[in-house]
Design a protein that fits this description.
By secondary structure, the protein is an alpha/beta fold. It folds into 3 domains: about 5-80 and about 115-195, Rossmann fold, CATH 3.40.50; about 80-115, no CATH class; about 200-280. It is about 50% helix and about 15% strand. It has 15 helices and 9 strands. It has a 5-stranded parallel β-sheet with strand order 2-5-8-1-9, sandwiched between helices. Strands 3-4 form a two-stranded antiparallel ribbon.
């Protein structure tokens, strides 16, 4: 698909894929597509940060390449590794007479290179959407390395040479703010904060994702989730949990949200034992019709 010609057009395209973006998010994405800039999305868990990359990949007809960050991730796991098992088999297949410099060089050629997400994205260029998910879980050194890659969109492989992207991929970074990211990375990116939606916005999102759900049930579930977020929960529910709760109630054929059915399906929206106990103590008030 061609690049959208306006923020309004992009908003409509996102909506057609089931993603209801506010004006600020749609504007940030439109600018990113126009200027080939990475976008850093921060916000609470479950508000739809990762989904942005998935929807953009579908809209643009690009391949989604995902780099899931975690504590201890290193550059090899993000860039490339050599297929040591195949290299060892190849060495065994060679006789001593055949092992020369040229044979050794072939062992470190493209045939034995295992691409990891960053190299894969650089090679794919504008045919890909690169999702760098939960970048806040990686350490400072890896963050600095990412900054270098995102600045040049090129990767040097000593045995092969430098791989450059003729045109950069769309890049979406997400963070749950488990730690503060460095200013250098933020300056390289366009930034947008995705917060919890208002009750009206959340009801519209649920209606878009679950059009068969009754408006009454959706309203009551959204109202209950909004009250849950006001409690001192270890893990407040995101929009994804709201949708899951509506789906769970639909599976059970529920047309209303009372204390009994809410208690039976609470695992769809509350995911911590201590949170469950806290919620059950005030469940009648939480599901009271707003």
């Amino acid at each position: 698909m061609d690049r959208p010609q306006s923020v309004e057009e992009l908003t409509g395209q996102l909506r057609s894929e089931g993603y209801l973006a506010d004006r600020g998010l749609a504007t940030a994405l439109y600018i990113a597509l126009s200027l080939h800039r990475p976008v850093l999305l921060e916000g609470e868990v479950g508000v739809g940060k990762t989904e942005v990359a998935k929807v953009l990949a579908r809209l643009q007809g690009r391949r989604l390449i995902r780099l899931q960050c975690y504590e201890g991730i290193d550059t090899n796991q993000a860039l490339y590794e050599w297929d040591y098992a195949r290299q060892m088999l190849a060495i065994r297949a060679l006789s001593e007479r055949e092992i020369d410099d040229e044979a050794v060089d072939r062992l470190f050629g493209p045939k034995y290179l295992l691409e990891r997400p960053l190299l894969e994205a650089v090679r794919a260029g504008d045919r890909a959407v690169l999702l760098i998910d939960e970048v806040d879980r990686a350490d400072d050194e890896f963050e600095a390395f990412l900054l270098e890659v995102l600045s040049d969109f090129q990767i040097s492989i000593p045995e092969i040479g430098t791989v450059r992207a003729e045109s950069p991929p769309i890049v979406i970074l997400t963070s749950n703010r488990t730690r503060e990211l460095h200013d250098a990375l933020k300056r390289r990116c366009l930034y947008h904060w995705i917060g919890y939606p208002s009750a009206a916005q959340e009801a519209a999102i649920v209606a878009l994702r679950e059009p068969a759900a009754s408006a009454t049930l959706t309203r009551k579930v959204v109202s209950a989730v909004q009250r849950l977020r006001e409690l001192d929960l270890a893990k407040p529910p995101g929009v994804a949990e709201t949708i899951d709760w509506v789906r769970s109630l639909e599976v059970l054929g529920a047309s209303d949200l009372g204390a009994a059915i809410a208690s039976d399906t609470l695992g769809a929206v509350v995911k911590e034992r201590d949170d469950l106990e806290l919620v059950r103590d005030s469940l009648s008030e939480i599901v009271a019709d707003g």
